[in-house]
Amino acid sequence: MNAENGKKLLLTVLFILAIVILKRLMKFLLHAVVGEKQERIQFWSRQAVRLFTTAALLIGIISIWFNNPSQLASAAAFVTAGLAIASQRIITAFAGYLIILRGKNFNVGDRIVMGGVRGDVIALGFMQTTIMEMGQPPGEQADAPSLWISARQYTGRIVTVTNDKIFDTPVYNYTTEFPYIWEEMRIPVPYGSDRNRAEQILMDSARRRTTKVRELGEEPLKELEKRYVIKREDLDPKVYYRLTDNWCEMAVRFIVDAHEVRAVKDKMSRDILDGFDEAKIEIASGTYQIVGMPELRVRINGQNGAG
């Protein structure tokens, strides 16, 4: 420790304080200018502030401690070699962060699956993405980790996933640009029932409870057709038949807001039950027929009554 190093240390502390104050001031100004409702603009603004202040901090500290170009070159070589060996995962995670920003894989508020975790993104950092976990439908309950919520609703757990996962596993985004998903409800109907009436009940409920495509407007629909090669008729509810050994399975397919799936399916289930009860249509269940039995001998013991 000498006077020169003491001076550099003091300058470093003052510079860090200045950067912290600058960061807070920039966030305050952005919040005042953008407002709370512009979530996406707020998100990208915060990321820009973080990148700018981090870069300024690194450049400032390096310029304070390595003011001699020859020392800077030697130190940079050693630091780079050490970081490359000891911080491979960290570097990969930060590279993933940059790709997420550049590629627009997802934003805060998007519903995604990343690294086997399903839920809504609530924060994006240099190294980790923070996700509010949601449950899974029964058909996916075998996926790790074990969950106790059998629908796409929050479990209450907050999960952090390192950003390097985007290099190893696919990232599924439910809501980016097009905040709707296709869903299905499968109803088994006995073969002897009025299938036309059952189909009409399913269609009426789907049209009443699900997203009304025509209300999206003509321009958004044209943009969807152009960008995603979606046919206009694919956006309307439709019922599909599938024949099984025991019943006719009717699958009603519809689009719904990704955050309202369980609520919509609950309302549709109530509508369908009421409609089937009114139309005297039963919902089929598993039945079993005994096709063979061993020979039975029955002996009845009794007394003859006096006559």
Structural topology:
Elements: H1 3-34, H2 39-65, H3 69-86, H4 88-103, E1 111-114, E2 117-124, E3 128-134, E4 154-162, E5 172-173, E6 180-189, H5 195-209, H6 218-228, E7 238-243, E8 248-257, H7 261-278
Antiparallel strand pairs: 1-2, 1-5, 2-3, 3-4, 6-8, 7-8
Quick summary:
This protein is an alpha+beta fold and 307 residues long. The chain has seven helices and eight strands. 45% of the residues lie in helices and 18% in strands.
3D architecture notes:
By secondary structure, the protein is α+β, with helices and mostly antiparallel strands. The chain has 3 domains: 3-86; 111-173, SH3 type barrels; 180-278, Alpha-Beta Plaits, CATH 3.30.70. Helix content is 45%, strand content 18%. It has helices spanning 3-34, 39-65, 69-86, 88-103, 195-209, 218-228, 261-278; strands at 111-114, 117-124, 128-134, 154-162, 172-173, 180-189, 238-243, 248-257. The strands form 2 sheets. A 5-stranded antiparallel sheet has the order 4-3-2-1-5, with no helix packed on it. The chain has a 3-stranded antiparallel sheet with strand order 6-8-7. Strand 1 and strand 2 form a beta hairpin. Helix 1 (3-34) packs antiparallel against helix 2 and helix 5 (195-209) runs antiparallel to helix 7 (261-278). It is elongated.
State the share of residues found in helices, binned by percent: 40-55%
CATH topology of the largest domain: Alpha-Beta Plaits
Largest sheet: 5 strands, antiparallel
Q: Can you list the strand order of the major beta sheet?
A: 4-3-2-1-5
How many structural units, i.e. domains?
A: 3
CATH architecture verdict of the largest domain: 2-Layer Sandwich
CATH top level class name of the largest domain: Alpha Beta
